[in-house]
Amino acid sequence: MRPVRAGSAVAVGALCGLAWAAAFRAVMSEFAGYSSQVSWIDTFAAILLPGVLVGALLGWAYAIRLSGGRRGWRWLGLAPAAFAIAPMLLPGALAQLLTTGLGGGAVAVAMLAIGGGFALSGRGPIWARILCGTVSALLIVGITVATFFIAGRRLAVSEPRGVWVALLAFSLLTLLAVASSIPLRPVVGRSAQDIAHTPEATMPRS
Fold this sequence. Notes:
Number of strands: 0
Distance between the termini: 30 Å
Oligomer: single chain
Structural class: mainly alpha
């Protein structure tokens, strides 16, 4: 496995993060129905920008993983926390969360991403991975099933629109959990065969 340039990985990751966040914003619009509004702060600063940041950090983690890892890089596994932190920075958002619970969905998304990433990483105590995987799976299924009850008949399980939105939410959340496992997976170093064919290895010794 050849090392990946960090700049390219970060750029591709940022693009994927932007696409993911934009798609998830569409899910949120379907949840809100006709009352959904797009604004510069709520949409771009609290949803799209965190998506770009999370994608870029996971792309960077991907490049580091393929180059053998480095000191402290596992902390990039907390990158999805940006989805919960960014909305809380908006004026009055934290107070609204504590008093009404509004905004808890962003916290749930961050939790299922980090927990799901750890569960899929293949590293750490098996009991902890099972626990985190179970919680993350329940959150994903809960959000998916809740789709059919959020907007009444418009997103009912008997309606094509409801099934489409539920599948979109399920696939996006599952994909986020899989991507979030990148910084927590075992590193991929160069094989002995790759090292043997490097110019340094084939040069005659004096």
